[in-house]
Design a protein that fits this description.
Number of helices: 1
Strand content: under 5%
Number of strands: 0
Structural class: mainly alpha
Shape: rod-shaped
């Protein structure tokens, strides 16, 4: 393989590595945001349940 072809192969390898690293970072970020959304939904459900319990308790008095 000539010297120029080796540089082209090296450039392609670097580009593929950078694209792969970018995709992995996006996947990790997406997973983290998904976990945060699930945690927020659980917090909201818990808050709504507490509010409905307190409203029910107020109605009984």
């Amino acid at each position: 393989m000539s010297g120029g072809a080796q540089y082209v192969v090296a450039a392609y390898a670097v580009i593929w590595f950078l694209v792969l690293a970018y995709v992995v970072m996006l996947g990790a970020r997406t997973a983290r945001v998904g976990r945060q959304v699930e945690a927020m939904m659980r917090m909201l459900d818990r808050r709504d349940a507490e509010r409905s319990d307190s409203e029910t308790a107020e109605d009984r008095t």
